[in-house]
Amino acid sequence: MKLKRIIVLFALLPLLLCCEGGSGKIEVPPPPVVDPSPSADDPSGGGDEQDKPHGEWDKNRGKVVTPSGEGWTSQTVREGITFYAFSGTDPVTKLAQNVCAVDVDLSNDKYAVKLAYSSPSVFTSAVHSKYNAIATMNAGYEAGSIFIRVDGRDKSALPNISIGSTGVRNWKSEAGFFADGERSISIKAAEDLRRPYVSPSQDEMSAFIRNERNFYLNSTEKNIISSSPLLIDDFQPVGETFINYTIGDWQSLKSEEPQYHQRQRHPRSAIALTENNHFIMMVVDGRQSRFAEGMSAKELTQFFVANFNPQYALNMDGGGSTAMCVEGLGTSDTHIVDVPINDNKKGNERARDTHFIIVAK
User: Fold this and answer.
1) Greatest extent of the chain over all pairs of C-alpha atoms, in Å
2) Which of 95, 240, 280, 330 is 20 to 30 A from 303, comparing alpha carbons?
3) Does residue 1 form part of some domain?
4) Do 222 and 216 form a contact (C-beta atoms < 8 A)?
5) Which residues contact residue 209 at a Cβ distance below 8 angstroms, ignoring those fewer than 6 apart?
6) What is the pTM (predicted TM-score) of this model?
């Protein structure tokens, strides 16, 4: 038996010496090089999804996009702050749309992005005037459904597990806006996203809300407001898949049900952050036939990707709450640049308790 082992060892010795290459260590061959360039079969970037660490949307990294083309206009509000407006047939929805956006370069230290809180609620134009703001936009849903912290003080700690008296389980705080009150801003999810969105069961609901609440309470930022749905998460267009389009009788759902609420075309308010450190506030008018049809969450996501390519984007309270003011623009008395519609009346503002404001430092 020993003789057989010796014979086998002598037979393997040349092979072992060859593999060691004289260094005393076995060399491991390098991994194969994967060509990242697009192929005809896979225009998204080559390889399977698991080969691309950030998925198909990774192709948008490093790509600066600003609105341009038919229907778009732009003008400088101040150095580092640009106002964009779109009016016409939008290529995403293929419908008439009216859109306004303010783009703030956060590298400019002349400005601060703040969250304003008012109790009782006030019009967007009143907040704009009160703070002598450069730009102002409505922010959060009803306070009982979200988390609000302003200048380090918690104004609402996501108290309700259902939305008002509707009985609909609260879905409005899956992600939030976080800021130091100056120029440091982030948009991040409170927990793993549900896509398509499925409401927690009745038994799960208390724990679900408690986990979201604790996430915001344990965050150290001085200014926080939660909202939903998250539209873009590190370039991933998660707003496209919020709705479960296999639900057939969705129009029979309550208006606050997420599968109804975010499938409908509405006026929209949203915020975004780009990879090159720009903060965007955007309003989409709606409920105005042949002028402004509004967008669903999926369409809003696609519109953002096509025209701004943000790294993160979050839907805020819309509908009759949607309103934006910009200094030197819009109507002379209010500086409202879009066409709000509240209680089916054009130009009619709705009082809100939270607003985003851009102010000079």
Assistant:
1) 103
2) 330
3) no
4) no
5) 158, 161, 170, 173
6) 0.85
Assigned domain for 98 exists: yes
pLDDT digits (tens, 9 = 90+) for 44-64: 233 333 444 457 888 999 999
Helices (H), 121-271: 124-130, 202-217, 258-261
Helix ranges, the chain (H)? 2-20, 124-130, 202-217, 258-261, 297-307
Token pair for 53: 């660490």
Neighbours of 228 (CB within 10 A): 28
Q: Is residue 116 part of a domain?
A: yes
Please tell me the distance from the alpha carbon of residue 178 to that of residue 142, in angstroms, as a whole number: 18
Structure tokens at 359: 């102010």
Looking at residue 54, its pLDDT comes to 56
Expressed as residue numbers, the domain containing 140 is 69-360
**Tokens read off for 38:** 């697009």
Specify if 178 maps to a domain. yes
Q: What is the pLDDT of residues 160-201, one digit of tens each?
A: 999 999 999 999 999 999 998 888 999 999 999 999 999 999
- Cα 175 to Cα 47, 83, 192, 241, 312, distances in angstroms: 31, 26, 10, 16, 11
Surface-to-core class of residue 348, CB atoms within 10 Å of its CB (0-12 exposed, 13-18 middle, 19+ buried): middle
- For residue range 233-279, list pLDDT tens digits in order: 999 999 999 999 999 899 999 999 999 999 999 999 999 999 999 99
Q: How many domains does the chain have?
A: 1
